[in-house]
Amino acid sequence: MSVTPLLQVKNLTTSFPIRSGLLQRVTGAVRAVNDVSFDIASGETLALVGESGCGKTTTGRSILRLVEPTSGTVHFAGTDVRALRGEALRKLRRHMQIVFQDPYGSLNPRMTIGAAIREGLIVHELAHGAAADARVKQLLDEVGLRPEYAARYPHEFSGGQRQRVGIARALAVEPQFIVCDEPVSALDVSVQAQVVNLLRDLQRERGLSYLFIAHDLAVVSHMADRVAVMYLGRIVELASRRALFQAPLMPYTRALLSAVPSLDPAHRTSRILLAGDPPSPANPPTGCVFHPRCSHPDKDERCARDIPPLEEKAPGHFVACLKVPVAHPSSLTS
Amino acid sequence: MPDSPLLDVHALHIAFPSVEGKVRAVDGVSFTIERGESVCLVGESGCGKSLTALSLLRLVPSPGAIEAGSQITFDGHDVMGMADEPLRAMRGHRMAMIFQEPMTALNPVLTVGDQIAEVVRVHSAATRKEAWARAVAMLEQVGIADPGARATQYPHELSGGMRQRVMIAMALIMGPTLVIADEPTTALDVTIQAQILDLLRAMREKTGMALLLITHDLGVVAEMASRVIVMYAGRVVEEAPVEALFRAPTHPYTEGLLAAVPRMFAEQERLHTIPGSVPPPDAWPTGCKFRDRCAYAFDRCALEEPALVQVASAHRARCHLVQEPERRHAQGAEAGT
Fold first, then answer.
1. Same domain, yes or no, for B80 and B212?
2. Is A263 close to B246, i.e. CB distance below 8 A?
3. What is the pLDDT of residues A66-82, one digit of tens each?
4. Crossing angle for the helix pair B190-207 and B160-172, nearest 10 degrees?
5. CATH superfamily ID and name for A7-19+28-95+176-187+200-332
6. What's the gap between Cα B174 and its chain centre?
7. Over the stretch A118-143, which tens digit does the pLDDT of each residue have?
8. What ipTM was reported for this prediction?
């Protein structure tokens, strides 16, 4: 890809202080996001998957500077996001939006949903008065809600409808990029499918780029062009959707995929059962963060000592594992 | 009575008071569970599945109440007519429950060992020491490493997966014949869910207990159930052996639900959707409660609520299409798009 990607994240690290003792002194730091790098092209969906506490949500928020990263760079359409201050940052946010998991918690209960959607238009001076009202109605229609709902309050809507409001609000300022943070995890299956289809339709119509944060791998397999798997703050595998789901290379990704229940009762899966829980990010293992739970037959003392770099093991397929060999390019052309 | 089912629920009605009198959240649910059977109760939020589960132990939260005429028979005993004392003796002993959120179901100020031991002390004449020893042994059986040390810890010191193992230990310690698990893995990560489902399966094989698992996740159903009961708007809408349900779902709701689940290896452009969402109990339509969202609905569906009718052996569905199958094919082509 010779074209500059829309979003470029390089060596992003976000740490939170650990305070302890009576005086709540800072005694350490948790690296919630640890040396994370990826690109997102215009019109592309990159999914960020992993289990709770892996740092996927913090990654999304760090990119938007809803939490301040500790180090690393984020470039959006050529602009250094971390260098922006005040008004310039606010202006950029018009182009980078977020849809949250819990639409109830992210909507002001005392504001009609019309007013909530309108707010962005006013703040960014995109429309006023009657034009803004017309735009709100048009947005509601685009996300599959009746325009007259603009006068209603969040509690009058079902979970799926509220998520549509959250999407309309993000779309109001005509962003190029949206961080979707678990946008369908709180929804029932039948409603979840509606919202997944809506997000895909909007992307096609508007050429949006998504960072799609999710723990549900089946949903990700429908949304993503490429998938990054995080474990304990690090990206451990990054590949095209097809490569990741059909030929995962990192032992953690394999275990994660095999843990998803199969929908065929006649073929109950033989799983790779991971022992124990993920370790605490406050006290991560040395070397490969996954090594204590890894069942790779070649696991050795190097895994406990050396941090494996995220390497391109096959074209476009990046893996952080010392035991996954780099394939010969000739054997990979299919 | 070896011939009668372990659990027999008949015409279960659960109502909540409302401004207009009362709202029925569970409306005439009947089903049975055989000894050693693994049954899944599935449905989306608000369908009444959790209330149904709670009612089996007579734990429906107030102001909700099980209405007169509902019958629950467990192991030959009339649960509805039970006095407080035998009811308490049954709960946690022969019929036990595993809740979704162990953090709220466990007592935060007691060690997990004490909580499990308490169950033993309530239901048997065991001494403190004996009860503690049994608690530690049970923790080991549910796969907790170093159970002696873990037993002395408090719930907040354990991970989510470990807390759910403690809940399972507590439910199984008296050797119940029926365990009710209400969304036991919903709050857990998928790799931890896999561990817990494996544990439940292993314990069931080992003890011969029956399992009623309440879930919204069809993947969990496919993994765990031998028989499935599907609920929608307070009613059982379909009941079938698990293979039959996944191979030939009959009720349009079951069919839609199965089609709406994203599948990991399918290169599918769009997900199938069911229009609208589950209506609240005070807004259920007349006739068939699913008809507003159903692609096949016709005039009869508004006039007459279908009965739960036989589709095949052990397979029943609450839909007029069972008697008028030609309507499904007539509208199927249109609905499939």
1. yes
2. yes
3. 999 999 999 999 999 99
4. 10
5. P-loop containing nucleotide triphosphate hydrolases (3.40.50.300)
6. 21
7. 999 999 999 999 999 999 999 999 99
8. 0.85
